[in-house]
Design goal:
Largest sheet: 10 strands, mixed
Shape: globular
Structural class: mainly beta
CATH class: Mainly Beta
Number of helices: 3
Helix content: 10-25%
CATH architecture: 3 Solenoid
Strand content: 25-35%
C-alpha cells in the first residue's frame, strides 16, 4: 500500500505534491509527477503517471504503462502493462487525454495527445479503429485530438458484425467543456 509500505508520510506527499486517497495502491518503482491524484486504484511497478493526472476510483495502470501530463483515467479504466500478458511495448496515453469509465487500453496501444476515449471502449493491437470521416481502418494508434466510441463494422460477407472503435470526430470546444470539470475540481482542492 502506498504510503504505508513505502514509508511515506504526510510530509513526503505534500513535498511531492501527490494526493493519495486511502485504498490506493502503488507498487514500489512507479513514478508520479507533481499534482497527481490517486483515488482508490492500483498502479503497477514501472508505471509512469505525469503531472496533474488523475487515476480515478478502481482504475488500473499496468506495469511500465506511460500516462502523460494532465490526463484523467476514469473510474474502472484499465491501462495495460507489459508483464501481464507479456508485451514488448508499453501502452502509452499521451498528454491531456481523457479515458472514459470502464475502458481498456492494452497491448502497447498509443493514444495521441488531447484524445477522448469514450466510456467502455476496448483498444488492443487487434482492435479495428475506424475513422468515420475518412473511412480508414487502423490498428494500435489513436491520432491526436480524436474522440473515440465503441462501434461495430460488418463482416465482408455481411453475415455478422464485429466490435471496433470508431473515431467519431475531432476534439472541439464542446468536448473540452465536458472534460474540463476535472481542472476546476483540482483547482478548488488546493
Amino acid at each position: 500500500r502506498y504510503p504505508a509500505a513505502a514509508g511515506y508520510h504526510e510530509a513526503e506527499f505534500r513535498k511531492a505534491g501527490v494526493r493519495v486517497v486511502p485504498g490506493a495502491i502503488a507498487r514500489r518503482g512507479s513514478y508520479f509527477g507533481k499534482d497527481v491524484v490517486l483515488m482508490p486504484s492500483f498502479t503497477n511497478i514501472g508505471a509512469y503517471v505525469g503531472e496533474g493526472s488523475m487515476v480515478d476510483t478502481w482504475a488500473t495502470v499496468g506495469s511500465c504503462a506511460q500516462i502523460g501530463k494532465h490526463c484523467h483515467l476514469s473510474g474502472g479504466a484499465g491501462i495495460g502493462g507489459v508483464l501481464e500478458p507479456l508485451q514488448a511495448a508499453p501502452t502509452i496515453i499521451e498528454d491531456h487525454c481523457f479515458i472514459g469509465a470502464r475502458s481498456e487500453v492494452v497491448e502497447g496501444v498509443v493514444v495521441g495527445h488531447h484524445s477522448v476515449i469514450g466510456m467502455g471502449v476496448f483498444l488492443g493491437q487487434s482492435t479495428r479503429i475506424y475513422n468515420r470521416a475518412t473511412g480508414e481502418i487502423s490498428y494500435g494508434y489513436v491520432p491526436p485530438y480524436s474522440v473515440v466510441v465503441s462501434g461495430q463494422l460488418p463482416a465482408k460477407d455481411g453475415s455478422h458484425s464485429l466490435y471496433c472503435a470508431v473515431i467519431v470526430k475531432q476534439v472541439d470546444a464542446r468536448t473540452r467543456s465536458k472534460t474540463s470539470v476535472n481542472d476546476l475540481l483540482r483547482g478548488l482542492a488546493d
